[in-house]
Amino acid sequence: MPNVSNLSAPASFAATGRCQATLGAAFERSGRGLHTGRSARVRVSPAPAGHGIVFRRHFRDGRSVDIPALWHHQETAPACTALRAEGVLVRTVEHLLAALYALRIDNALIDTDAEEMPIFDGSALPWCEGIAGAARVEQAESTRVLRVLRPVSIVNGHRRLSIGPGRGLTVCAHIELCRFGTFDWQGAITPHSFQQEIAPSRSFGRFMRVMAGRAYGFLTRKPLLQGCGPRSAALLFRDRVIGGLRMEDELVRHRVLDIVGDLALIGYPVEGLVIASHTCHDLNHALVAALMRDRTAWELV
Question: Is the pLDDT of residue 142 over 60?
């Protein structure tokens, strides 16, 4: 793990003391889901102060269900972040949530006609581009910030994840991959750093495991990796990445992207230092739940 003793976000990027914000206009995106392989249309619209981030899933019979993007609506699903309310599911929401969080959009309504968000190229860039095109508009109400007061940790074998006191949101991430080596990334999550360093990184997986997962999903009719391929993920085959990497440490940067998206389920901007080693969605979700259930570990300011 890299040295994190002096790692903290710049004071100018502290989350406290800012106004809530929404979008200046709605934008739309469409594409196939990573797991279902099915087409989805998504419209991200402005919302009033205090609204938060809410998914609204529409059905052909005219019915719609609202699903708040909050940790207690999180449901376990393979290789993604899923939310459920009133028996209705939306999945693979983490890249959109990460983009909204990092670009400081507190309030938005996300209309969708499908169970799963589009995966696009496996990165968060399409979402960032949509948000940038719609523009950020500040609202009169100030935002409350969740400030971490003491460390909370989750350990599962070689996987370790913790969050402790820090300035702004800062992440230190580490992974080791057979045939590829060791990768580390650390830094403050700001609108600029996220768009330039984190958002372009793609979902990744071992090619043979992805193919086996696709076959299993097809045979069992379960929504697993049916839309996964070289256009939607960085696929690792033997000692290379099919199509190459966008940056040398792209794989660990995508772990950071997922961490940001999963922390967004807290529902407030977070001030804390995250240290992650071989983390995954399940570990991210467990950390969020452990933090939120320990009322002595944080305060709202």
Answer: yes
